[in-house]
Design brief:
With about 325 residues, the chain is an alpha+beta fold. It has a single domain (about 1-315), classed as Rossmann fold (3-Layer(aba) Sandwich). It contains six helices and 19 strands.
Amino acid sequence: MIVLSMRQPSHALTLCCLAVAAVISGNAVATAQESVTTLKVDVKLVNVFVTVTDSHGAPVSTLKEANFLLKEDGKDQKIAIFSRESELPLSIVLSVDTSLSTRKDLPLELTSARKFAHAILRPQDALALYKFSEEVHEVVPFTADLKAIDAGIDRIRNGAATALYDAIYLGSQALGRRQGRKVMVVITDGGDTVSQVDYKEALRAAQEAEAIIYSIIIVPIEASAGRDTGGEHALIQISGDTGGKYYYATSLPQLDDAFRQISDELRTQYLLAYYPTQRPSDSDFRRIQVNLVDAPPGGPFQTRNRAGYYTAKGSW
């Protein structure tokens, strides 16, 4: 088991004594020297993974390129690549909150997580298992070996505090070095007590990695006085801004249902890729909007995708 540590101010990822080189991921090509705070990148192609659901929340997989209208900062963009992404390899970080506040629910969480891994992984996919309490641990590195994942799940034990934002930040860094679709599933009660990075840093790391975050929020008692609603709202926002979704779960059936819905969505996503129009901007964040046009019967449909992307990457 590897402890992932945060180092200020660069927040570099340390895997024991192994130095990990910084990698610029996806389709962004570095073109300028590293400055003190940012790496400038020339964005050649922007990937937008889109989930479409019907009025019942079921994924819609029959749409065509002509049904999508893509905009960046309000300007129409030409779709250069369109595909249904059921066959593109998946990299998944499954991050489990093992703080003391989850001790009663942890066995159920792990049972459901095991089912999810067995249901979603194909030979071309890979899953990394993380646990977080006062520290973030990589229990199992990226692999499609279900026996290794099962063994890692069996080794997970409770800790003390909760470094939720550190877990999102470090998991995003790991995903940033992967190719294909990048997904993080976080199982937590929503609290954060000891993270070295804050909400904004965690969100930016996820957005820069093009990670889609799904949050499964464990709420054993709806009216619990100790419930961290602020943390829950932060998770909901992070999930929405990365094109993912959040779920509440109070029982094993609800956990299983959340994982089933995530699996179904990941098998029916669309890829819209485009070359952005070059233009001056006062911000290094470009907003992406996807709408549907001439949609087939069965609507109304809803689309989910990441809120945008950064043209300058923060240094790790």
